[in-house]
Amino acid sequence: MISTLTESIPTSNIFSHLREKYLRVRNQSLIICEPLEKEDFVVQPIVDVSPPKWHLGHTTWFFEKMILESFDPEYQVFHKDYNYVFNSYYETIGKRVLRTDRGNLTRPTTDEIFKYRAYVDEKMLGFLDSKNEIDRSVLKLLELGLQHEQQHQELLVYDIKYILGNNPLFPAYRKGEDKCTRDSRELNFLHVSEGKYTIGHEKEGFCFDNELGVHQVFLHEFEIGDRLITNGEYLEFIEAGGYQNFHHWYMEAWTWVQDNKEKAPMHWHKIDGEWFQFSFQGLQPLNLNEPVTHVSQYEAAAYAQWREMRLPSEFEWEVACKMYEPDRHKNANFVEGGALRTKTAEAGHYQFYGDTWEWTNSAYLPYPYFKTDAGAVGEYNGKFMINQMVLKGGSFATPKDHIRPTYRNFFHPHLKWHFTGIRLAKHV
Q1: Are 311 and 428 in contact (CB under 8 A)?
Q2: Cα–Cα 20 to 30 A to 23, which of 139, 168, 233, 375?
Q3: The model scores a pTM over 0.90
């Protein structure tokens, strides 16, 4: 990964900039958790969901382990067992609590983890204040740690919704009714001509290592949807028997549908003949105009097949985004907006950024010239480049300064607890 955390910042302002960004990002995790009760912090209903308190501890451990222990000779670890408790998947660093067992960690307590965060924050700020200059390798790790915490903030929002949405009482994360009232506009298609296009991160600023390896690809002429698919459009697929017709599904996906008795996106509930959706405001009637979310790649691909279209490749998506919406639309739906739901697209807004992560039909593979860094940070992305699919664009839980056209998210195709939606593409 590359970091230009302090590029274009006068030397006299570097440390105030570092402090401001560190405090802002770290505080956002606490803001997300503020509506939770103590009992909510410990729950792990499924393997994909981590307890909120584990996220708070793990993101803190990253700064302790990667920066303070390595670069501050006077630093004393907060607790000798926390490396074992909060290491996620870094084999280089040592043994860890298995992901499936994170929900068994009634200890350390939630209060102890908040004390851990305060302790590490104090030491990090003291470390920054003590330096007249900071080694570039430390700056890179600091930027990576902040980007890493922003990723976990989005995961926190996913996991909180799953925890509350699978509570039989459907408790609201926050009170009030905050729903979209604007009608969805007609779906049209954006044209991209045949040709060679450049893929990968080539601008200044931070990117992850999986975005590096700028290269060219040849694309045939295609068209791509100018907005996301809505709940109402996906409901038509359900009512047309989409989950009962094997013709729409990959063989592996069809097995998944049958084994799991899949019938609808996650958090959809049919009650007395009417469709409802669990939201952060609790259980509410399904809004047909909002973009559909909580669909797996299997479902997204089946829907596209039913529409006699397909999902875009990650290269097609990136090229179309750079061509038609190179800058974030002023009304792009990110976490800063506070909506915590999808919104309908307005005229001139193509929804390439925010609302939902968009499934592509591309496997998550390395770009040409990809190489991992030495040490534990080299395990950040490369080790996952198998059996996963690429998603693009960000969601309503993504910080707006965290996303870019080259960003490559990745998940297994059967997963749908995260905020994932559908954009169609077709050959011309």
Answers
A1: no
A2: 375
A3: yes
pLDDT at position 9 over 50: no
Helices (H), 166-296: 231-239, 251-260
Percentage above 90 pLDDT, the chain: 81
Residue bearing tokens 């960000």: 394
Tell me the two tokens of residue 78. Answer: 């907060």
Rounded to whole angstroms, what are the CA distances from 3 to 65, 124, 128, 398, 423? Answer: 19, 19, 17, 20, 31
DSSP per-residue letters across 316-335: HHHHHHHHH-SS--TT-B-G
Distances (CA, A) of 411 to 142, 320, 360: 25, 22, 11
Contact predicate 400/334, CB 8 Å: yes
- Backbone torsions φ then ψ of 274, nearest 5 degrees: -115, 145
Interatomic CA distance for residues 349 and 223, integer angstroms:
17
Helix (H) or strand (E) holding 185: none
Report the C-alpha gap between 72 and 75 in whole angstroms: 5
Backbone angles phi and psi of 276, in degrees to 5: -125, 160
Using H for helix, E for strand and C for coil, what is the string for 221-255?
CEEEECCCCEHHHHHHHHHCCHHHCHHHCCHHHHH
- The mean pLDDT value of the chain amounts to 93
Give residues with Cβ within 8 angstroms of 344, minimum separation 6. 180, 182, 183, 184, 185, 230, 289, 290, 291
Q: Sign of the CA dihedral 350, 353, 355, 358?
A: positive
CB 127 within 8 A of CB 141: no
Does the pLDDT value for residue 230 go beyond 80? yes
Q: Which of 21, 36, 96 is nearest to 65 (CA)?
A: 96
Distance CA 415, CA 309 (A): 22
Q: Model confidence over 15-72: pLDDT tens digits?
A: 778 889 999 999 999 999 999 999 999 999 999 999 999 999 999 999 999 999 999 9
With cut-offs at 50, 70 and 90, classify the pLDDT of residue 380.
Answer: confident
Residue 392 contacts residue 360 (beta carbons within 8 Å):
yes
CB 342 within 8 A of CB 333: yes
Cβ neighbours of residue 274 closer than 8 Å, sequence gap 6 or more: 285
At 243, give phi and psi (nearest 5°).
-85, -5
